[in-house]
């Protein structure tokens, strides 16, 4: 499908979801929930800020990557930066001059980036030097990934390509048709132990062999229903999360499901719609739904444990687990901290004047937040000190 048509479809979908009219009628979208006063019970310290890059207001899959002791960032103008995660100090910075739209991802010692002009680029993680660059089938709107000498990239036309990490030559490709109307974005490939797990715009989750691209299994997370193309949108835009041999995946207009890593058997499924995404541990699955409500589900059976509605229509990110807490960003630049136990609010941090759409990155108890203005902020919750022995 031509990329212009896909973009127009997404623009229309954004307007319809927001309750706006193409002809200037009154906006009837739900207003964002007001921030309530509360007494914080968690102290959060800001470690550092780094003004690095930016999305130019575009809906792009450019997000922080932590790999082998470094943080990596990229922006749409082609700038790529490596940072020291402890201090925020710049280790190296390069300007590729390319319109980057997906990544960074990692494959061994390489940094992988996709462009809106249908290219996959590999840089060295040590210095940011270009190792190779190759054409793919269409715009890249997800983060490439790889291991064991194979890099995997997903393009907007539904094609997944496996390439040789050493030179970028094609090893295999896997193709899926794209529906007439889709969200502007793609689920990133999850590469683990010789397999690739990836969600598609048709609502299906697939597992491929990393070495050959051979399909191991494919299972529907959501089935298109409804009379209009809008009602039938079931994109899996959220990245899959793998916890103890179970994959958790969420779709738009579809559901959230737990799937066996080995067989693709659906262990449980819930009718909840999400495009922002989820996080999970062995106990619970946490989801931001399309109304900007946060759900906690039992990881064993999908039963609801609690629902938090206080951020309704605030344009929240996917939730991220940090210790005993859950953290989400919103379109006004706030970071909200909730207790995992029951979902009550424990802290709120105004990180930026720019929206926070990207899921916070958590590494060793530190939360890295990337806003639309291109600033990366590192924060850490202060844990209560143990009582002194008598």
Biggest sheet layout: 5 strands, mixed
Structural class: mainly beta
Q: Biggest sheet, strands in spatial order?
A: 2-7-8-9-10
Shape: globular
CATH fold node name: Methylamine Dehydrogenase, Chain H
Number of helix segments?
1
Mean pLDDT: 86
Task: Kindly estimate the percentage of residues that lie in beta strands according to DSSP.
Answer: 35-45%
Radius of gyration: 20 Å
Task: Return the CATH architecture.
Answer: 7 Propeller
The level 1 CATH classification is Mainly Beta
What is the total number of structural domains?
1
CATH superfamily: YVTN repeat-like/Quinoprotein amine dehydrogenase
Number of strands: 33
List segments where confidence is low: pLDDT < 50 over at least 5 consecutive residues. Answer: 1-27
- Helix fraction, binned, reads under 10%
Distance between the termini: 71 Å
Task: Please tell me about this protein's structure.
This protein is mostly beta strands and 390 residues long. It has a single domain (3-382), classed as YVTN repeat-like/Quinoprotein amine dehydrogenase (Methylamine Dehydrogenase, Chain H). 4% of the residues lie in helices and 43% in strands. It is built from 1 helix and 33 strands. It has a 5-stranded mixed β-sheet, with no helix packed on it. A hairpin with a 5-residue loop joins strand 9 and strand 10. The relative contact order is 0.12.
């Amino acid at each position: 499908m031509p990329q212009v048509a896909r973009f127009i479809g997404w623009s229309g979908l954004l307007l319809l979801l927001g309750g706006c009219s193409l002809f200037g009628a009154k906006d009837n979208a739900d207003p964002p929930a007001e921030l309530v006063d509360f007494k914080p019970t968690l102290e959060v310290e800001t470690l550092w800020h780094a003004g690095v890059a930016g999305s130019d207001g575009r809906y792009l899959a450019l997000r922080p990557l932590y790999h082998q002791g470094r943080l990596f960032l990229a922006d749409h103008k082609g700038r790529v930066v490596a940072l020291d995660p402890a201090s925020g100090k710049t280790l190296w910075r390069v300007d590729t001059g390319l319109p980057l739209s997906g990544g960074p991802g990692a494959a061994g010692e390489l940094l992988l980036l996709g462009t809106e002009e249908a290219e996959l680029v590999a840089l060295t993680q040590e210095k940011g030097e270009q190792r190779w660059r190759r054409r793919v089938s269409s715009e890249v709107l997800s983060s490439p990934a790889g291991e064991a000498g194979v890099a995997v990239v997903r393009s907007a036309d539904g094609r997944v390509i496996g390439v040789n990490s050493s030179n970028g030559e094609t090893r295999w490709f896997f193709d899926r048709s794209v529906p007439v109307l889709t969200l502007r974005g793609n689920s990133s490939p999850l590469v683990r132990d010789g397999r690739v797990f990836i969600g598609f715009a048709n609502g299906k989750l697939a597992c491929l062999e990393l070495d050959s691209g051979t399909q191991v299994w494919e299972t529907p997370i959501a089935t298109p229903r409804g009379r209009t193309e809008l009602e039938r949108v079931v994109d899996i835009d959220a990245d899959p999360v793998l916890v103890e041999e179970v994959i958790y995946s969420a779709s738009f207009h579809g559901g959230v499901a737990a799937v066996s890593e080995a067989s693709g058997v659906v262990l449980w499924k819930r009718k909840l719609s999400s495009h922002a995404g989820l996080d999970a541990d062995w106990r619970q699955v946490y989801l931001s739904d399309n109304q900007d409500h946060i759900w906690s589900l039992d990881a064993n059976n999908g039963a609801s444990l609690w629902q938090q509605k206080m951020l309704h229509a605030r344009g929240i990110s996917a939730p991220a687990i940090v210790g005993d807490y859950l953290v989400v960003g919103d379109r006004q630049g706030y970071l909200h901290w909730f207790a995992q136990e029951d979902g009550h609010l424990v802290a709120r941090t105004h990180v930026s004047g720019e929206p926070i759409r990207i899921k916070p990155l958590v590494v060793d108890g530190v939360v890295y937040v990337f806003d639309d203005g291109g600033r990366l902020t590192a924060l850490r919750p202060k844990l209560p000190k143990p009582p002194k022995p008598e």
